[in-house]
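Supplementary Methods, section 5.1.

A reviewer requested that the exact input to the structure prediction be made available. We therefore reproduce it here, unchanged from the version used in the analyses.
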Amino acid sequence: MKGTILIIDDEEQFRKVLSRILELEDYRVLQAENSAKALRIFEQEKDILLAITDVRLPDNDGIHLLQTIKTTYPLCEVIIMTAFGTIHDGVYAMKLGAFDYITKGEGDEQIIVTVERAIDKARLQSRILELENRLGTRYSFDKISGKSKVISDCLSLARKVAPTDSTVLIEGETGTGKELFAQSIHNASPRKNKSFVAVNCSAFSKELLESEMFGYKKGAFTGAHADKKGLFEEANEGTLFLDEIGEMNPDLQAKLLRVLEEQTFIRIGDTRPLKVNVRIIAATVRDLQKEIRQEHFRADLYYRLSAFKIRLPSLCERKEDIRMLAEHFISVSSAKVKKKIQTATDDFYDKLMDYNWPGNTRELKNIIERAVILSEKDILTGELLPLELTFPGNVQDQSPTASLETVEKNHILRVLGYTGGNKTKTAAILRIGVPTLYRKLELYGIKVS
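The structure derived from this sequence is encoded token-by-token as follows.
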């Protein structure tokens, strides 16, 4: 079945003929003799993709019915039927949102082609809405896991700034979820139905990043064979996310500042300024104030970007969230690889809690996915974790006051992790004999399977 169509016309014989034509094309067809009956059918049927209505009805006119349908059921397309002398009604209907109009007496083939086009558009609109809803659900504040005070404070700040047009600077280590926060701010803003465009400033040279951001005119340089829109134009009325803003070249920083202040820019090779309305969200792992002191980053741009600043905590700063995050990633990874793993052992969670997570949430997600792939049971155990997580008291950053024994123990652990637990390779890297390595493993209580 290609879809459901509602025909609205007070001529019973005409409805029957048109219904038969469409049913032979594998459409499900419903009929109504007036607008009141049509609206009752709409209330009962939730999958009508197309309404075909006469411009003249006993209890209403098709134009008014069109407006009601498009207001109440915006995903449904409407085709207006007109008599030969009322074609101007069809043109007017299209201006009000009708997909098209047909004149009574047109050939069957023309009617079928018009209906197919309308059905295709209705299906496409439904698919787009579905994808937008999925995206909105995926990138929403409710999907950011964590009950710790530090992450709750960040979410509170993000929720407050989202409805505004303020520039936002998100600071945080790699893997803390800066782009997820940026997407969520965009999706909670009045710009949510417009574009969210992301660019990693560290991934391009100065010249290439400039052309990506501002676009260029045909002939601006060798290889510029046609006009190219920049990211600012692509993000017009929406949000531009500048990740790793601290990596941007100082010359380009000056141009960015001008765009932020004036909301205009000039394509490379052009002389005409273009006006845009773009919200900027920037992110960085760098200490931009330190970069300013070292003259690597412009102070005026920093103050413009940091009108509203959010610092995301590392995973070590929110360890009480680790179990909740792990459970979420277990569920996601299990669905991804089609396994039925519901939970993990206490030993598994204890090892996650003991680790220092230099890669933050991203590292946790990857380690959970690895464990799910390796698991042959419906529960995850500590043995599925990488070697660096399986040692008691695994490697932490060294304190300058650490004892010599602690330094030696942690260095052995690092090398064991590097070699995957291979004692012969570990001893060779440490430049000690294998028997000496075994004695030190026993001394420090390091167990390697």
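Confidence is low (pLDDT under 50) at residues 392-397. These observations are discussed further in the main text.
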